[in-house]
Write a structure and sequence with these properties.
Layout (H helix, E strand, L loop, with lengths): L14 H12 L27 E2 L7 E2 L38 E7 L17 H22 L4 E7 L4 H9 L9 E3 L4 H14 L2 E4 L14 E3 L4 H13 L7 E6 L3 H13 L10 E5 L6 H10 L3 E6 L5 H15 L4 E6 L11 H6 L2 E5 L8 H14 L5 H20 L3 H5 L14 E8 L2 E9 L3 E5 L4 E3 L1
Parallel strand pairs: 3-4, 3-5, 5-6, 6-7, 7-14, 8-9, 8-10, 10-11, 11-12
Antiparallel strand pairs: 1-2, 12-15, 13-14, 15-16
Helix pairs in contact: 2-11, 5-6
Length: 469
């Protein structure tokens, strides 16, 4: 159960140890085997980071440090990737992954070691770097689980850097990278496009863990998008609403500066054929000025006996709180009400608990962390022993993805791709991934565009926490 607000755990408990730990992560930039055993060492002053040729981080891996300057270099174009797979063979979708005795898996994540300044301090609390640290640590705990089961594998990790220049210099110029058939990463949009092109032309399976953007690649059966798109989340909400609500009960509310989401909701309702019982739901674009709402919002609320509200905005917490208070005043002791929002609501920090409860608030989300689960608590404890902080959601997601990939590889081997779209992990902590082939058809010719995780859950706020509905 995720509580709201969802405060970030501070990264400043034992300052000496944690500064060393985080800065060390930010200095990662080359590959290593996850099965390597490393003894614990005492922390060293952060001012010595730039002078270390190797960094030891407690139980974590030993990683060479390579600082690669990028100033003055031009961006690397994706067409510089050599084509190894002819385009007329792409539809076969036979990647480089086989049922060899040892699985090779690589991680290309934005530790961003260039954020460490010459005096060793730098911006160690950079949110992108922190995401990479938590994600990789979650993945590493999954790898250790498979190692303990006797599975033979080699894991490699590279710092992608912030752009495609860094990516090429640190990752693609490393010959070891060319031998890895399964990659998880990267994070930044340009780097995703670059590696997606590499994957398409070399048969490497690329799992993109963060971006939910459209149009990152095309005609690419080797690309896997782990985060569902916003359209998938919207579709899940529309399906849930359509189960019991009439069109005239539904009202879509949207901040006027964010009109795009409103269009996506209407398009989803239209595609699902609900319009035959009275057309599309009513939608209103509202100003951030609350005093203007009396003219158009209140009449819409008052004429409905049952209120099914979709809040398609999520970026302005003040706006959202004001809107929720208005909905509560209108519905208090008078009307049945249910409110829907998107997954960013899980991380908003200024949301009123009681309003979420009274408004029967629901969100669509690709993950759910039930802190009452014993396996979740065990993972949190092990993670805390590893890093000295509690895991953020990305750590759980990485743990689940690595487990899914290993399970499928062990059972299917050469048929990894063919069966992944029907393969379900036997156990997961937060994200029951379900990948589906995304295809397009032109002139009766079907193309396998990419693969995308389609699993989205509807969560309800109840008892001061989020639960599966």
């Amino acid at each position: 159960m995720i509580l709201v607000p969802s405060p970030r755990q501070p990264l400043n408990g034992n300052n000496i140890f944690l500064n060393f730990l985080i800065a060390s992560f930010l200095l990662l930039s080359a590959a290593c085997s996850s099965s390597r055993s490393v003894a614990s060492v005492m922390p060293i002053p952060s001012t010595d980071f730039a002078n270390q040729s190797r960094i030891l981080v407690g139980k974590l891996d030993t990683l060479p440090v390579i600082i690669a300057p990028t100033d003055g270099m031009l961006p690397i174009k994706s067409d510089e990737v050599a084509k190894e797979f002819p385009s007329d063979q792409i539809h076969i979708a036979k990647g480089k992954l086989t049922k060899d005795a040892t699985l090779k898996i690589g991680f290309v994540l934005p530790f961003l070691n260039d954020f460490i300044s010459s005096d060793g301090r730098g911006e160690i609390n950079n949110s992108v770097s922190r995401w990479a640290i938590h994600y990789y640590t979650g993945a590493k705990l999954a790898l250790e689980k498979w190692k303990n089961k006797g599975v033979s594998f080699e894991s490699f990790v590279w710092d992608s850097g912030p752009d495609s220049v860094s990516l090429k210099k640190r990752v693609l110029d490393d010959n070891r990278f060319l031998d890895v058939p399964l990659i998880i990463g990267p994070y930044h949009r340009d780097n995703i496009k670059y590696l997606a092109n590499y994957a398409k032309n070399s048969g490497v399976l690329l799992f993109s863990p963060f971006s939910a953007a459209q149009n990152l690649t095309e005609d690419n059966p080797f690309f896997y998008q782990v985060n569902p798109t916003i359209e998938t989340q919207i579709s899940a909400i529309v399906d849930h609403v359509n189960q019991y609500a009439r069109t005239e009960d539904i009202l879509i509310l949207q901040k006027d500066s964010d009109a795009k989401l409103n269009e996506l909701f209407l398009a989803s309702f239209l595609s699902k054929g609900k319009q035959e019982d009275g057309g599309l739901p009513e939608s209103l674009l509202l100003s951030s000025n609350v005093s203007t709402w009396a003219k158009n919002l209140l009449p819409e609320l008052q004429k409905r006996e049952k209120l099914v509200i979709i809040l398609s905005s999520y970026s302005d917490e003040v706006f959202l709180n004001n809107l929720m208070q208005e909905l509560n005043r209108e519905s208090f002791d008078k009307k049945e009400i249910i409110v829907y929002g998107l997954s960013p609501w899980l991380n908003l920090e200024k949301v009123d608990f009681q309003l979420l409860d009274m408004l029967n608030f629901h969100v669509s989300s690709p993950y759910h962390i039930n802190t009452g689960n014993s396996e979740i608590r065990e993972f949190q404890q092990i993670f805390y022993q590893e890093l000295g902080v509690f895991p953020q959601p990305e750590a759980f997601q990485a743990f689940d993805l690595v487990n899914l990939l290993f399970e499928n590889w062990i059972k299917k081997g050469d048929f990894f791709q063919e069966d992944l779209d029907s393969f379900e992990s036997s156990q997961f902590l937060s994200a029951p991934y379900q990948f589906r082939k995304v295809k397009s058809s032109t002139d009766d010719i079907e193309k396998w565009e990419l693969n995308r995780n389609q699993n989205v859950m509807i969560l309800k706020f109840s008892g001061f926490g989020w639960q599966k509905d």
